[in-house]
Structure formats: structure tokens, C-alpha cells
Amino acid sequence: MTTTHVPDAAAEPRPHGASASARVVPSDRVGHIETHGIETVPHADRHGRPSSLFWVWTSANVVYLYFVLGGGLVLLGLSIWEALAVTVIGNLWWAVVGWLAISGPAAGAPSVTIMRAMFGVRGNTVFGAGLGVAIGLFYEIINIAVATLAANAMLALLGVDLGPAGGWIVLVVIAAVSFVFGVYGHATILALSPYFSAALAIAFVVLAFSVLGAADFSYQAAPLPDGERWAMLLLGYAIIASGPLSWGTGADYARYLPADVSKARVAWWTALGGFLPAVLIGSLGVIAATAIDMTDPQLTIGEIVPAWFTPIFLAIVVLGSVTNNVLVAYSTGFYAQGLGVRISRAGTVVITGILATLAAGWFVYVAPSFLDTLNASLELSVTVLGPLVAIYAVDIALRRNRYDARSLADLRPGAPFWYTRGWFVPGTIAMVAATTVSVLMANTTLYVGPVAAALGGADLSAIVGPVLAGALYAVLWLTTNPYRDRRKRPAAASIAPTAPTAATAPAAPAAIIDTDAAASARTQEEPV
């Protein structure tokens, strides 16, 4: 009887850009810089429980941004109950983020590596790594800008006169603090996330008492024509959905878990960690909009909270933005490695962080309206993020979450995920077609697509884009080689521990490892 053997660290290939030190130095230790990059995490380094993912995602999502977005729904003209409903429905996308996370333990690799399976080696540099870097930088910029504005307001409230140079110093310090945790990596983030979550949650609970005490539950939004109301509902949905849709990186934080971990628990704790704070804080922003002007809540919040709490509120805005930026910076480093740069993960975090810091300075001190720019950018980001996340989610379902780490690391022509000249036709067509349709349907303050204009301003991009991408990808996947012909599909087979590495092995279709079979094999072959 033949059993499936999962290669150990020595037998696993080192992909382009991977650090040789990852083979001999323990990678995942608190207070030490993580040495693993986009390469596969060896099974000897796998550890942890799915419940730890809850704290990682909670600490990253107890953020002021959701408070602003919730209030923004009321500014669009929605009633309280409409805004609350949109907040809940838009955040249901967290269930999909949880689903994406299960691919991490299966492959032992970050999302940018796994996406080679759906776009091809070359296609992934555009749709996976390329878009990932752009999106990651965008959210890093948002976090630095929001934190800097809050810090400036807090210092002004305390009577500290910064001056122009002082403002830039604050921005640089905030950026440096958020990026240093991203440099240290997975274990340090995991260890600190419960403490960040607790501190932020306590502060938001205090804020909730003030908001609920000042809320005007009899608030009535100005009447809108039926057509315009539906347009605002759909626009609000697109803005809220942009939050969870920006996290197509769930595998990054789950990849250290053992391959035989419960997929349901990985999905549940990931989704719950993002959904709960997003909905609760977004709802708090909706209610606050009935009592204060949410066009500038950092200043008007002082109208409903005790004077002593105002600087604390601004401090939690800073802390929440920093904790969110930790995860964003961590994943952006992986995406940058996915571009093929020969730089360590820690190095790419630093480089992308410097770029984001410079851009954030422009948003804070040069851009005419940060809030308008933010809303328009979030609305447009859905046109790309929705299709990308949908294709990823469908690929997991079609493959039954079976990803071969060895094949994903093989970047040579003729490798299993090289496909056609480095591109996977189904993923490429689905992504381009769905994104194009989404852009035509988008309705933002800076751009209105022709389809949205024809529909009276209704923005269907956050609904049609993901549905079209997922459906088109599934149809093409099932009707395109190598998956149309079952005989040409990579078949499950055993991999000997002495198998050739990616640098010397012949370019033949590699095995897709069934994680359940791999778990069974470890039980038989490894000492307990």
C-alpha cells in the first residue's frame, strides 16, 4: 500500500526570491524577524490553532475607518435602518474571506503563491502580485493618512503646536511603528493581536455608551426619489463591501497551521474576526451620524463624548489604523516578492512602506479633500477586488482545496502551473471580462460608468462583477485543458522524500496533494 508523503524542509524547493536562511533558522518566533517568504512553510514549522486567527483579524478590524464608512451611509441619504442593513449585508463578504483562508494550511503558502494556480506563473504577476501590490499600497496609504490626521488633532487638542515640519514627523513615526511589526512577521503579530484587540475594544465600548446616549433614533433622512434611493443603497453596499473584499489574503495568516487542521474552524474564526468589529463599529458610525456631522467626525465627536475621552478616542483611531496596517504591510510584502524581486519579505515590507509613507504625505498635506478621495477610491477598488476574490473562491471549490506546494513553487516553462506561455486562459478571461463590466457599472464621485448612468446612477459593480467572474471562471475551467480532459489533469500521486527539487526536476505535471491524505500519511510515517 502506497502512502502520500509530504516533503520535509530539505526536500521542498526554494522558489525565486526565497531566503536560504529559512532552511536552517527557526522562522516563526516572537520578537524575531520571520524568515519565510512566499515559499512553502515546511510541515515541521506548522503549529497553532484556528482560534488564534480570530484575534489576528479582530485587531486588524477594530478600526476607525468603519466608523467613518457607517456615518457615510447616512450622508448618502439612507435612513438609519437602511444604513444598518447595508452595513450587515456588505460585510457578509467576510464569509468568503474565511473560505479563502482554508487554502493557507492546504498549500502552506501565502495567497499570492496560491493564485498561480488560477492565473498562471506570468498571469499571476499581473492579476495576483501586481494588483496585490497596488491594492496593498492603497490601503497602507489610507491607514497612515487616517492615523496622522487623528494624531495631529489629538496633539492640537493637548495644546501641542506641531508646525509644518512637525506634521511630517508625526506621519513618519506612525508609518515606522506600523511597518516594524510587519517586518517581524507572523509570530509577533499573533502574540500581540489579543492585546491590541482588547485595548481597542474597551475604548470603542466607552465610545458606544456616548453615541447611544446622544443618538436621535427619530432621525429621518431627506426624502429621495425611488430610483435615486436604490442607487444610493447600491453605492453604499459597494463602499461597505470594499472592506472585506480587500482581504483576499486570508491564506497569509493561516499558512502556518497544520495541513490537517479543520477547514471549517479556519473559515469560521477568520470570518468572525473580521465580521464582528466591522459590523459593530460601522453600526456605531451610522447611529453617530444622527447626532453629529460625520463629514469630519474626528473633530465633531467632541460634541457627544466627555472632554476627557476625546484625546483617548483620537488615540484609538491612531492605534486601530496602525494595527490594520500591520496586516496590510505584511501581505503587501508577499505580493512584492511575487513580482519576482530578489528581496526578502522583510525587505519588501520596508520598501513598500516607504512608498506608502510618501504617498500618504500627499493625501494628508496636499490633496484637496481626503474624505472625497477615500470614498471614490474605495468605490472603484471593488471593480477589481470583487472579481479577484470570486475567482479565488471558485478555484478553491473546483480543486476541492487541493494545492501542490511543489508545483506552485515551480516557475519554469513547462511546469504544471505554467499553462499557456505562463498564462491560465480561464483566469485571465474571467478577470478581464468581469473587471471591464464592473468598471462600466461603477458610480463614484470621480467617475460614472455608462451602464450606471443608463440605470439612473445605480452601481451594480459589487454584485455583477463577482458573480460574473466566478461563473465565467467555473465554466472556462471545466471546458479548458488541462481540466477539460480528466486524463490531463494533475493526478494525486505519492511524492518520495528524495524527489528532485524545482531546480533539477523535469517539467512534468506534479501531484496535487490531498490534505486529508497528507494528514493520514503523517500519522503513519511521523512519530507522535
TrEMBL record:
<keyword id="KW-0813">Transport</keyword>
<protein>
    <submittedName>
        <fullName>Purine-cytosine permease</fullName>
    </submittedName>
</protein>
<feature type="transmembrane region" description="Helical">
    <location>
        <begin position="418"/>
        <end position="440"/>
    </location>
</feature>
<feature type="transmembrane region" description="Helical">
    <location>
        <begin position="460"/>
        <end position="479"/>
    </location>
</feature>
<feature type="transmembrane region" description="Helical">
    <location>
        <begin position="312"/>
        <end position="336"/>
    </location>
</feature>
<keyword id="KW-0812">Transmembrane</keyword>
<feature type="transmembrane region" description="Helical">
    <location>
        <begin position="92"/>
        <end position="114"/>
    </location>
</feature>
<feature type="transmembrane region" description="Helical">
    <location>
        <begin position="266"/>
        <end position="292"/>
    </location>
</feature>
<keyword id="KW-0472">Membrane</keyword>
<feature type="region of interest" description="Disordered">
    <location>
        <begin position="1"/>
        <end position="24"/>
    </location>
</feature>
<dbReference type="GO" id="GO:0022857">
    <property type="term" value="F:transmembrane transporter activity"/>
</dbReference>
<feature type="transmembrane region" description="Helical">
    <location>
        <begin position="126"/>
        <end position="159"/>
    </location>
</feature>
<feature type="transmembrane region" description="Helical">
    <location>
        <begin position="380"/>
        <end position="398"/>
    </location>
</feature>
<feature type="transmembrane region" description="Helical">
    <location>
        <begin position="196"/>
        <end position="215"/>
    </location>
</feature>
<feature type="transmembrane region" description="Helical">
    <location>
        <begin position="230"/>
        <end position="254"/>
    </location>
</feature>
<keyword id="KW-1133">Transmembrane helix</keyword>
<feature type="transmembrane region" description="Helical">
    <location>
        <begin position="165"/>
        <end position="184"/>
    </location>
</feature>
<dbReference type="GO" id="GO:0005886">
    <property type="term" value="C:plasma membrane"/>
</dbReference>
<comment type="similarity">
    <text>Belongs to the purine-cytosine permease (2.A.39) family.</text>
</comment>
<feature type="transmembrane region" description="Helical">
    <location>
        <begin position="348"/>
        <end position="368"/>
    </location>
</feature>
<dbReference type="InterPro" id="IPR001248">
    <property type="entry name" value="Pur-cyt_permease"/>
</dbReference>
<feature type="transmembrane region" description="Helical">
    <location>
        <begin position="54"/>
        <end position="80"/>
    </location>
</feature>
<dbReference type="InterPro" id="IPR026030">
    <property type="entry name" value="Pur-cyt_permease_Fcy2/21/22"/>
</dbReference>
<dbReference type="Pfam" id="PF02133">
    <property type="entry name" value="Transp_cyt_pur"/>
</dbReference>
